Amino acid sequence: MKQRKFFKATKNHSGAGDYLFDFFNYTFMIFLCVVMLYPFLNQVAVSLNEATDSLKGGIFLWPRIFTLANYKYVFGEASIFHAFFISVLRTVIGTLTSVLCTAMVAYTISRKDYVLRKFVTIAFVITMYINGGLIPNYLLIKDLGLLDSFWVYIVPGIIGVFNLIVIRSFIEGIPDSLFESAKIDGAGDFTTFIKIVLPLSLPVLATVSLFVAVGQWNSWFDVFLYNSSTPNLSTLQYELMKILQNSNASMSGKTASDAMANTTAQANMVTPTSIRATMTIIASLPIIMVYPFLQKYFVKGLTLGGVKG
Q1: Domain at 80-232, CATH homologous superfamily
Q2: Is the pLDDT of residue 13 over 80?
Q3: For this UniProt entry, what is the primary localization, expressed as one broad class (predicted)?
Q4: Where are the alpha helices (DSSP H) in the chain?
C-alpha cells in the first residue's frame, strides 16, 4: 500500500524539472520529425517544380514554379503502367509465398521434438555468410529454367534466412501448453500451424511482410539480370531506372546554363534531378500507403514483447 501511494504521489508531482523535461522532450521529437520528413518533402517539391528551374537550387518545402511536366514525362512512357502491374503482382505473390513458406519452416525448426532442427537451422544460417556469387547464381537460375520467367522474382527469395530466425524466435515464445492442448485434441502439425501459430504470430508476420514487400517492390537488379530481354516482365523500378538513364544521356551534352538559357523549350524539358525526385515519389507512395494498415500489428508486437519481458 505504501508503495502504491509513493508511485501515485510521484506521478502527480509536477515541478520545474518535469516541465523542463517535457520541453526538451517535445523539442527533440519535433526536431526528429522535421529531420525525417524534410528529405521526402523536399523531393516532393522538386518533382512538382519546373525542371530547369530546379537546377538553380534553393527549393526546400514548396515548388517555386509549379508544374506536372515531370510526372507527365514519366507516365508518358507506354510501358510504365504494365510495369507497375508486374511490380504489384510480384510484390503481392512474392510477399505471400515468402512469408507463408518462411513461417512454415520457422515453425518446423522451433519444435523441440524435431530431430534435425539444429542441423537445418545451421544449414540455413550458413547461407547468410557464404554466397556462391553472381555468376554461379546466374547459372543456377538458368539451369532451373527460370530465365525470362515471372517466377524468377518469386522462387529465389521464397525463404529469407533473417526472417526465418525472427519468426522462429517469436514462435518459441508461444507457451508450450497451447501446442500440448492441440495435440491432445487430435490436431496435427498443419492444423496447429494454421489455427494456433498463424493467428498468434500476426505481429511478427506483419513486420516480416513489410520487409519482404519493400524488398520486392524496390528490386530491379534481378530484372536486369534475368528478364532484360523480356519487356512484358519488366517492373516499375527497372522502367524508372531506364527513364533516368535516358534523361542522363540527353543531358550529357548540355550544361546547366545551356538548359536554363533555352526558355522556349524550358517548360517541356526534364532533367535528371527532376526525374530522380519524381521517381522517388512514385516508388515510395505505394509503400507509404500500405504501412498504416500494418502499424497496429507493430504496436501489438511491442506490447506482447513488453508483457513477456
Answers
A1: MetI-like (1.10.3720.10)
A2: no
A3: membrane
A4: 2-12, 16-47, 51-54, 69-75, 80-110, 117-129, 134-143, 161-172, 176-184, 189-192, 198-200, 202-218, 221-226, 236-251, 256-261, 272-308
**Best CA proximity match to 203, nearest among 79, 83, 297:** 297
DSSP 234-288: --HHHHHHHHHHHHHHHHTT--HHHHHH--TTTTT---HHHHHHHHHHHHHHHHH
The alpha carbon of residue 240 and the mean position of all alpha carbons in its chain are separated, in whole angstroms, by 18
Of 158, 155, 169, 157, which Cα lies nearest the Cα of 100? 158
The verdict on pTM exceeding 0.70 is: yes
Q: At a CB cut-off of 8 Å and minimum separation 6, what does 216 contact?
A: 90, 91, 94, 95, 153, 157
Contact 141, 152 (CB under 8 A): yes
Instruction: Pull the grid cell for residue 41.
Output: 518533402
Q: Measured at the alpha carbon of residue 222, what is the angle toward residues 286 and 99, in degrees to the nearest 5?
A: 60
Site of grid cell 547461407: 127
Domain ranges of the chain: 12-77+234-308, 80-232
What pLDDT score was predicted for residue 207?
A: 86
pLDDT tens-digit series, residues 228-281: 889 899 999 998 888 888 877 766 655 545 544 444 445 557 888 888 899 889
Cβ atoms of residues 216 and 94 within 8 Å = yes
Mean pLDDT of the chain: 83
